[in-house]
């Protein structure tokens, strides 16, 4: 869950810690090390996030790492196939595709208008571009707790939004069909 981080400290780093003069308070790893030996924390921990982490790890263990990796790969392939079927240019070529997100660089329709209407009409959040890509791309996430149904719903909603925005360089249903083919054959 967002808000948690894991830290590992080598013996060499602990030696450097002893002589470090940088100011520290909440990130004083020595306090955490001392309290961890007593099975506690130096500050009030985010207990809700600990429970969320426990649940997430149990879900991962039940699914198995190989299955998780395969699911992310399948969802990536389905999303990319859908975007190609909708004639939406992908930002990264296939050999650089990410199992985490698919970045799309639409032409003939504004990325921010797509994102805004997806959120407003379907309550689906697409990430935008950052830095020099702000307003140029949108990103479809398929990492983590994402299922086939989520991708199909997002693609279907995207098709409706594209039509509403006047983008007509696709056949209605083509994206969903392309994603479905990938999801049922892999």
SSE topology sketch:
Layout: H1 11-19, H2 29-36, H3 47-63, H4 65-85, E1 101-104, H5 111-122, E2 127-128, E3 138-141, H6 148-164, H7 174-185
Antiparallel strand pairs: 1-3, 2-3
Helix pairs in contact: 4-7, 5-6, 6-7
- How many helices does DSSP assign? 7
Assign the CATH architecture of the largest domain.
Alpha-Beta Complex
Biggest β-sheet strands, sense, barrel: 3 strands, antiparallel
CATH class of the largest domain: Alpha Beta
Overall number of structural domains: 2
CATH superfamily of the largest domain: Aspartate Aminotransferase, domain 1
| Total strands | 3
Mean pLDDT, all residues:
95
Helical coverage, percent range = 40-55%
Which stretches of 5+ consecutive residues score pLDDT under 50? none
Note the overall shape: elongated
Write up what this structure looks like.
The chain is mainly alpha-helical and 186 residues long. The protein folds into two domains: 25-62, no CATH class; 64-185, Alpha-Beta Complex (Aspartate Aminotransferase, domain 1), CATH 3.90.1150.10. It has seven helices and three strands, in the order H-H-H-H-E-H-E-E-H-H. Strands 1-3-2 form a three-stranded antiparallel β-sheet. Helix 4 packs antiparallel against helix 7 (174-185), helix 5 (111-122) packs across helix 6 and helix 6 packs antiparallel against helix 7. The radius of gyration is 22 Å and the shape is elongated. The chain starts with 10 loop residues before the first helix and ends with a helix.
């Amino acid at each position: 869950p967002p808000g948690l981080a894991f830290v590992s400290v080598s013996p060499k780093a602990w030696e450097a810690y002893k002589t470090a003069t940088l100011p520290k308070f909440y990130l004083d790893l020595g306090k955490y090390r001392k309290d961890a030996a007593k099975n506690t924390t130096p500050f009030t921990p985010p207990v809700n996030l600990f429970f969320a982490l426990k649940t997430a790890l149990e879900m991962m263990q039940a699914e198995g790492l190989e299955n998780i990796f395969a699911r992310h790969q399948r969802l990536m392939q389905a999303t990319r196939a859908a975007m190609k079927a909708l004639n939406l240019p992908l930002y990264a070529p296939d050999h650089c595709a990410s199992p985490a997100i698919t970045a799309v660089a639409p032409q003939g329709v504004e990325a921010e208008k797509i994102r805004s209407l997806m959120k407003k009409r379907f309550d689906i959040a697409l990430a935008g571009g950052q830095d020099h890509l702000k307003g140029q791309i949108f990103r479809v996430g398929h990492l983590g707790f994402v299922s086939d149904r989520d991708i199909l719903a997002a693609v279907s909603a995207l098709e409706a939004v594209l039509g509403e925005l006047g983008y007509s360089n696709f056949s209605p249903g083509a994206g969903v069909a392309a994603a479905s083919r990938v999801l049922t054959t892999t």
